[in-house]
Amino acid sequence: MKTDAFALRHLGPRESDLNHMFKTIGVESFEQLIYETIPDDIRLKKDLNLEPAMTEYEYSNHIQELGKKNKVFKSYIGLGYHPTIIPAVIQRNIFENPGWYTAYTPYQAEIAQGRLEAILNFQTTVIELSGMEIANASLLDEGTAAAEAMALLFDVRSRDQKKNNTNKFFVSEEILPQTLSVLQTRSTPIGVELVIGNHEKFNFSTEFFGAILQYPGKYGQVHDYSGFISKAKAQDIKVAVAADILSLVKLTSPGEMGADVVVGTSQRFGIPMGYGGPHAAFFATKEEYKRSMPGRIIGVTIDTNGNRALRMALQTREQHIKREKATSNICTAQVLLAVMAGMYAVYHGPKGLKYIADKVHASAVTLADALNKLGVYQTNTSFFDTIAVKANATKVKAIAEKQEVNFFYVDGETISISLNETTSVKDINQIISIFAEAVGKEYVAISQLVNESMVPENLERKSTFLQHEVFNNHHSESQLMRYIKKLERKDLSLNHSMISLGSCTMKLNAAAEMLPLSMANWNSIHPFAPIEQAEGYQIMLKKLEQQLNVVTGFQGTTLQPNSGAQGEYAGLMTIRAYHMSRGDHHRNVCLIPASAHGTNPASAAMAGMEIIVTKTMENGNIDVEDLREKAIQHASNLSCLMVTYPSTHGVFESAIREITKIIHDNGGLVYMDGANMNAQVGLTNPATIGADVCHLNLHKTFAIPHGGGGPGVGPICVNDKLVPFLPTNPIIPTGGSQAISAISAAPYGSALVCLISYGYITMLGAEGLKNATQYAILNANYMKTRLENHYPILYAGEMGRAAHEMILDCRAFEEKGIKVTDIAKRLMDYGFHAPTVSFPVAGTLMVEPTESEDLAELDRFCDAMISIRKEIEATTKEDTNNILRNAPHTLAMLTTDSWTFPYTREQAAFPLDYIAENKFWPTVRRVDEAYGDRNLVCSCAPIEAYM
Ligand SMILES: *Cc1c(COP(=O)(O)O)cnc(C)c1O
């Protein structure tokens, strides 16, 4: 046996455990288990056609070699991406720390207070710099944040009688090109007409409901937008501003100018460029729009004892509730990156940020000055960090690239140069020397920055920001290191225990997969760098696309979408483009089974589709006859079906081929939601079941960590019908021959974290991937067998097997006054994160162990669930002061002098033996959701403000 095989590290159960596990569930072998689980007509007959698996050591060498093919040039390209310095203390303690990056979205607030506080810091930073009232916990990138702003303004206009039949949206020609492309994609299907122009010539016609401006403009010009905004206001036109976060330290905020929404990226707050992402976009708006705001909001509330506690606010706005009425499908966001950007603000504080912004500005002024002396004319009358100069672009480019320097070449004679936090006097001299050579003049070095402002007096920021103590008290490394540790200790992540979240596939995020993210020649490339400088990336991304084609059985992949939901949207938009290319403009009906994840209908609504919900049968399966009837009824307008496989109930429905055939026979295509791909890889695939397109959640099935709620990568894989329509990018063309416009801002989405999935597939190979799936199915069925005598299991396949997850029905316990959330909270006392609560069925828990959990951990979790079942048995409806309803139990409760509960301290905190050795303490008692929603506070204002 090759003991250095990565598969042995990735898989939990040891070979010696298999017999016991097989015996428990009553099978002889994997073959039998898989035979009983997956319908035979969709089983793959051959292994995946992939290269042989690499060991961790081989992969490490391979990725370093490949990295050398990426050329890290000095980047002055700008356009929303800038070199930045990751504070080492943040890199080591957050970016490279599984305590932070393996956490789940903070739905279980009592064991997530650390990251909730870190995100609150991010929101506070955004609110104060943008000058707005509320902000969310991040969006996927600036381009899509701008699209969300447009969608929000379009949505709120419908409540305004004067505006509810307007559909024009003004876009300043100074908007970033990739943002414009995303706006084009997102506006068309919902019926918004974009009008692009010069904001100074805008006529403020009443036909417009909104406008978006870029601040500073894409090539650096800083405009005073207050006049524009007040004229727009007079016509009831709402204004969004896409702003550079660092410039806001120095400039009057859009909020102070009266903007309705402010969006942007926080990349330059210490997040590596990573060839396009991941980075956290921000979204800030006014209190009055809080119920329309996309994404998640962290808010302040109280716990059972009235102590301050944090949690996700206004959950009822989520797509799960709104479904086809949703205007946004955002689910996974960019939490880890938001945490880091917020921590960058904590690290620097207001003084440090001011120092950086002043230095960047002085660098730009100094450079403009020196170039002017060379006779190189600079066109921006007012600027922050970016200058636009007139020179022969061909000449400059040739000299600059020889010196490993990138500028942005606007046209033959205009060059845009963006300076940044890392720019030194030496760098400025290099730029001067390049231009001196280009214009044939003598080069005169500068020795220091000039202290002059190119920001007009009325645009100089006068308001203070980040006065809260958190931004002013952590400026020694010891303090910050301990602050980060203090927060980390409040959170339960995969480095403590299994997180068995059904549908979310919280598997191992192996260190060997993560390490390359810290390498400079992977993380320091600008997404718009010339393609020949990113050869390593081009090879890696192509190979990953190829691997995903093999895994899905499809012909083409785009890595552009930054989340599963964005993949859904991308897939539906390619389907839409396909129908249109055939003249079938009317095909816009999308069938969706009732059990679908909320993002499905939300994505379909965003793609302008009419949603028809199809029935689910008693046993959880799709009602094939109902589906057939509706497909036939809508045949002339049928666009597609969205189907999750195995189903959201964790079952391989045997009718799947019939289902996909019905859709094809009626002129539609089939979109497969790939969130459950962990049950398919190597055993079956979307092409075989008859799908035309699927998204994959690389942050579920392919080992990208959840990061506390992001980043994500949601590529779509498509068959040859749809390959021509894969999305492009306006600067670095990607996609098919009839590509749709951009789905996200960067050409390859979050390219940096694609390395993780590439490492995962490359180190597992065909056999390892197949084994991962088989072990995932084994682990799930083992737990099912252990738990089914204690909890009714909803739904199973025809031969009684679960796929890779199962649903425990907890609804009957309501007779004893026990709700499913009581079980979720009680699990915390046992050291576990709850499984998925109330999805896809209210009142249930959906458990997905994944292949990475070993037998002992599965047994501990089952023991905990069985013990909780006994606790439920021992309660009565009248007994409201019980161990479940009081859960979780904090250390403070246990150690107070008076213990008044009708059970012992030991029962409360140490109900099973294994717990004592590795006790996890929730830091707050149960949080009060309603209180927080009634008193929405989403920044770290002083305590008195909300108590
Ligand atoms: C996770 C999930 C999604 C959404 O993916 P995100 O990356 O969070 O946008 C969609 N469908 C299903 C079934 C999922 O489990």
TrEMBL record:
Instruction: Tell me yes or no: is Oxidoreductase among this UniProt entry's keywords.
Output: yes
Keyword Oxidoreductase in record: yes
> Which keywords fit this entry according to its UniProt record?
Oxidoreductase, Pyridoxal phosphate
Q: Which GO terms describe its molecular function?
A: glycine binding; glycine dehydrogenase (decarboxylating) activity; pyridoxal phosphate binding
> Which InterPro entries does this one have?
GcvP, GDC-P_C, GDC-P_N, GDC_P, PyrdxlP-dep_Trfase, PyrdxlP-dep_Trfase_major, PyrdxlP-dep_Trfase_small
Listed under GO cellular component are: cytosol; glycine cleavage complex
Q: Which GO terms describe its biological process?
A: glycine decarboxylation via glycine cleavage system
Catalysed reaction, written as an equation: N(6)-[(R)-lipoyl]-L-lysyl-[glycine-cleavage complex H protein] + glycine + H(+) = N(6)-[(R)-S(8)-aminomethyldihydrolipoyl]-L-lysyl-[glycine-cleavage complex H protein] + CO2
Q: Which co-factor is required?
A: pyridoxal 5'-phosphate
Q: Which residues carry this modification: N6-(pyridoxal phosphate)lysine?
A: K700
Q: What is its EC number?
A: 1.4.4.2
Q: List each copy of the Glycine cleavage system P-protein N-terminal domain by range.
A: 9-435, 448-727
Question: Domain of life of the organism in this record?
Answer: Bacteria
Among the Pfam families in the record, one is GcvP2_C
Glycine dehydrogenase C-terminal domain ranges (all copies): 772-889
The UniProt entry, under NCBIfam families, shows: gcvP, PRK04366.1
The record's family statement is: Belongs to the GcvP family.
Supply the PANTHER family for this chain.
GLYCINE DEHYDROGENASE (DECARBOXYLATING), MITOCHONDRIAL, GLYCINE DEHYDROGENASE, DECARBOXYLATING
Subunit composition and interactions = The glycine cleavage system is composed of four proteins: P, T, L and H.
**Function description:** The glycine cleavage system catalyzes the degradation of glycine. The P protein binds the alpha-amino group of glycine through its pyridoxal phosphate cofactor; CO(2) is released and the remaining methylamine moiety is then transferred to the lipoamide cofactor of the H protein.
Q: What protein is this chain from?
A: Glycine dehydrogenase (decarboxylating)
